[in-house]
Design brief:
- It is a single chain.
- The protein is an alpha/beta fold.
- Helices cover 38% and strands 20% of the residues.
- It has a 5-stranded parallel β-sheet, sandwiched between helices.
- Helix 1 links the parallel strand 1 and strand 2.
């Protein structure tokens, strides 16, 4: 299956995502901050998908997204937040069709979004 990087500062979310996606056959790597995500991205190749929470310790999420995209140009991204998508200002460089997963999410929603984003649904 896929190698997935989960970037979230909430330990319970990281644990849930790791368990659910591992049981679905994916290899899961976790990071709790922007700096850790960048280090993990540098050390683990390939990374097929990144699930990025918009609020993690470090620089603004769009800077973290841009940095991870440069480190892993072949990876796809899902953005996630407890804030409603309509309430988030997305910079021009973030495509409008970038997948977004509203938190809190159910296991089924996570699995479906990952499958859809990877094109394996």
């Amino acid at each position: 299956m896929a190698r997935i990087l989960i970037v979230d500062d909430d330990e319970s979310i990281r644990h849930l995502a790791r368990v659910v996606l591992s049981r679905s056959g994916h290899e899961v790597i976790i990071a709790s901050s922007a700096a850790e995500a960048q280090r993990v991205a540098d050390e683990n190749a390939p990374i097929d998908l990144v699930l990025l929470d918009l609020i993690v310790p470090g620089p603004p999420w769009n800077d973290t997204l841009s940095s991870l995209q440069k480190r892993r140009p072949g990876a796809t991204f899902i953005l996630s937040s407890g804030n409603l998508r309509a309430n988030i200002v997305f910079p021009e460089e973030v495509p409008a069709d970038t997948p977004f997963l509203q938190k809190p999410y159910r296991s089924e929603d996570l699995i479906a979004m990952v499958a859809k984003t990877l094109g394996t649904e």
